[in-house]
Amino acid sequence: MSEPEVVRPRRPAGAVPAPAVPWLSVHPLTARAGFRAVGEVTLPTHRIWERALEDAVRDRGDVYFVELSALSFVDVAGAEVLADAARRFGERRLVLDRPPAALPRVLGLLWPGLPAIEVAAS
Q1: Which residues belong to any copy of the STAS domain (predicted)?
Q2: 39-120 to CATH, choices 3.30.565.40, 3.30.750.24, 3.40.190.80, 3.20.20.370
Q3: pTM value?
Q4: pLDDT digits (tens, 9 = 90+) for 52-94
C-alpha cells in the first residue's frame, strides 16, 4: 500500500501571510544590574514587560540598566509602564541602553521630566 498523498492548501495569489505573533524575551545582564529585552512590547507581551520592570523597581542598586537594542517596538501602554517604574525609582537611575528611536520621544512627549530615566546611545 502506498503512502497517502499530503495535500497542502495553496495560498491564493496575492494573499498576505498571517502576521507573526508578537513575542518578547527578557534576559538578566551578567556584568551589571539589569535586563536585556528582545522582541516587541505590545498587548500580548505586556505581562512579561511589566514583570521585568517590577523586578527593576525592587532592585535596590543605584543604577539599573535596560538594554533595548534588540527591541523593535514599544507601544504607548508599554511606555506608560516604563514611566510608572521610573517614577518609583526615586533617586536611583534607570538607564535605557539603545532603545527604539521612538521610545525616548514618546516618553518626553507624554511623561516629560522623568529624572530617573537616562538614555544611553551605547
Answers
A1: 35-107
A2: 3.30.750.24
A3: 0.82
A4: 999 999 999 999 999 999 999 999 999 999 999 999 999 999 9
